[in-house]
Write a structure and sequence with these properties.
There is one protein chain. The chain has 2 domains: 317 residues, Rossmann fold; 218 residues, Nucleotidyltransferase, domain 5, CATH 3.30.420.240. The chain is built from 21 helices and 20 strands. The longest helix has 24 residues. The protein is of the alpha/beta class. Helices cover 42% and strands 19% of the residues.
Amino acid sequence: MTSKNYILAYYQHIKDGTATVGTWIELWYEYIVQGLERGAFFFDAKKAAAAIVFIENFCRHHEGEKAPGKIKLEEWQKAFVSVVFGIVDADRRRQFREVVLVLGRKNGKTLLAAAIAAFCAFCDGEYGGRVYMAAPKLQQATLCYEAFYQMVSKEALLAARARKRRTDVYIEENNTTVAPLAFSEKKSDGLNISLGICDEIASWSGPQGLRFYEVLKSSQGSRKQALLLSISTAGYIYDGIYDELMKRSTRVLMGDSRESRLAPFLYTIDDVTKWNDINELRKSNPNLGVSVPVDYMLEEIAIAEGSISKKNEFLAKYCNVQTNSATAWLSRETVKKASGKPLRLEDWSDHYAVIGIDLSRTTDLTAAVCMIEKDGELYVFAQFFMPGATLEDAQARDGVPYNVYVQRGLVTLSGDNFVDYRQVFDWCRALIEQYRIYPLVVGYDRYSAQYLIQDLEAYGYKTDSVYQGYNLSGVIKEFEGLIKDGRVHIGDNDLLAIHLLNVALKYDGMTERVKMEKTAKADHIDGAAALIDAMTVRQKWYGELGGRLKNEE
């Protein structure tokens, strides 16, 4: 039995450029290799080899010119199988219980999923296995199920042990069943799934798809090493399970998640402007030149170049770029680089600045940011305000120690049940009267309380409303470049750091622009929104005010 570690082999080829992959895949295999080095989990060579050997010796192509020949796995597929089955926890059980595989069209997703289903059905070592291929409609779910059945029926040793019944395939010796499953929350209760294959999750409709996924996931609770495998290209359903898994996955890859059971394999291109570059497309199509002929891809590119609708389809299905998709924005390392020693307003007397204000709702968190430029570096001071009576509830709800931030002076308890915006005004006024810092423009979201804006204008502040949408794409990209270059400093403001890490960027494939949104519905990004408000007016008025905003001697 082979004992080669295909994880390390693939990782080495990624690093030396032999294997062309995108950023997400490189980050994922770095995560795996570093996790093995520090003992976060372990590699069981026998378990990895067992799955690879089974697939290559007992699983066959069920259609196309290679049928009914045996499957020959490519290196990326062997690495994938090795991670899924060979990476184990301290109890020697599978480390990863949720696996997300995003691949371009015709890269063998269904074939690989069917082979994994066969391995789990016959060799997973669990009596009473329940394997389901799930999709919105039975016709879609049947695609993977039929691939599995054809695979089994073409291999004598497997066919002799399996019996096809009206609605499933039954393996008597280990009391295991394999069946297709369409959306039905009621029928899914009590399934006790050992392996669930979620086919083309990008097509799972919003709330219904989210609920169905959670039903499938919760049905695995009594299994010791259950597996939920989601396979898909990108698609056109927004705010569904695909978006949810992409947000969770990219947070794991950015180092901003405590999840340890999710394994994301996201084969996507990096540069959308190179969507028609065959070398860039290798990142989202690891089987390019194998199951995806290069000539075929070039013809698809030519078609897409002549039609906007075809281009959007190409972006989704071959580049895995979903129009209006959202992924995590800044990595923990990037935000950590911006953090450091405390910043004190009193050290910045006689400097010019800009202010950003994000008021959100009066019953929730409000943020104000003062931004000062010096020697090409940006120094950010953020102050948060929240109703005093909601402190304990907010701590329990958000899991954030707001009481500590109150003690440190980062959060001001303002009013009882509603934020008193007069205290936001007082903070802005104190910049001038107490600290001798001179904000030249105040950027505020257009939903701000108008009486606060009127008070600021009456005091003498120049104000400018900011609409937080795709129109701020250029501002967001400028800030991203600055913070990644280490030119943004937020001091020891942990709460602002949390808000930056909570931001996802939603991408519009039609315009190739981005806007900010929360990575999860319960997350707060008020501090980040206020910061971008400040960046917006800084960028807008820099031509007129740049001489003073630079604070040059």
